[in-house]
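ok trying again, last paste got cut off:
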Amino acid sequence: FENGNDEKLNFIIGMEIKKLKPNEKNIINIYIGIGLEEYGAVTSVIQMRRNTYESIYNNTIKWLSDRTVISGDDYLDNIVNINYFYNHFFTTGYALDTDEIVLVTSRSSRYYVSSAYWDRDSMIWSFLPILERDKKYARKMLEYSFMRQIHNVGIHSRYINGTILEPGFELDELCAPVIALSKYIEKTNDMELLEEKYIQKGLNYIIEILETKKHPVKNLYKTMLGPSDDFEKYPYLTYCNVLVFKMLLDYSKLFKLIDKIDLSKKYENMAYEVRNDILSNCIVEGPFGKMFAWSVDLNGNYILNDEPAGSLKLLPYYSFCNIDDTIYQNTVKWIHSEYNIYSFSKSPLSEIGCSHSNHPWVLGLCNSLLSNMRADNAITILRKISFDNEVACESFDEVTGESRIGEDFASCAGFLSYSLLEYIKNNKLLK
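nice, full thing came through this time. structure:
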């Protein structure tokens, strides 16, 4: 305000001065350039002005519109689209110094491990929704994972240059890039990418690491950390070995596509050897009958548990068993029962949590939607919880529905968008 006079406002941009009276509006297009130094930033502004505001605006609207889902349910559409775009812009970006795409679980400063890379978060939760709507960009994500991040694949978390941030081996993270690659090839038939030397080298390297984790006798593989990034008492996790089964089947499919038939058969046989040993060693007696254990030590000891970041509810999703399988059904019943101390079965908003964050998880809702087990309940909960700025968090309050931990969890936002879109498709709600 000028000299305390509130009748007019001096609005200054550069050398241009606009004096605004009360209720008067003036629109100014502001171009903001970014560069390694000031000259590069200035020239990027010049280029934007050449392209004109109208052109940039219209191109942006078209880009957003091409990726927007409309089902007719405004509330669900809002969740799908806001969380999709938040995932796109807050789990991916271009590095200023190398101009290459980089991936993180969330670059929001509100998330408690900001701007770090996890194989699982980027290659499953974040990747799948982007693959559905932007296959070219999904290819760039795979390129980054198989080039920049491959030398420490399977390690807990890393910096964006691929070096280790938090050590500790996670079996589910080792599997994630292969599962993502297989999904991409299935959607695009991009044989050129599959035959790239760095992709083939990465596939071989992942198998080399996997072999070091195998039990001396059983066809099961150990991990140090579980899907929630916490230490596991018993090293052989059912869910993680189901991912190994899925990954080996994907190896078989991928090598068949490039006419490596012997390798294809080898990995198919390995996959079913893993499946057989899961069925032989990871099924125990539970309160509702035979069920899958969370983890075993192969010496008779086991733990009953489940985690939203890698749930046993997803076994049919990964083609391990049918949804009506009795052992699977007993497992899901246990997961949502009072026997599971993290089930929140008596709470108004009943979804699974875990020791990592003792509240219901948004990823638990994703698992319910993808598995079609309590999917309608997940939709009901989604209509009641209140995300900050409508973006998914890690966990929410089981009574109020307010965000509790892990705000702006961008890769989770992506997985929520993907899971909800799959639910919409499966129920034929998409227009």
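cool. The CA atoms of residues 118 and 401 lie 27 Å apart. The radius of gyration is 24 Å.
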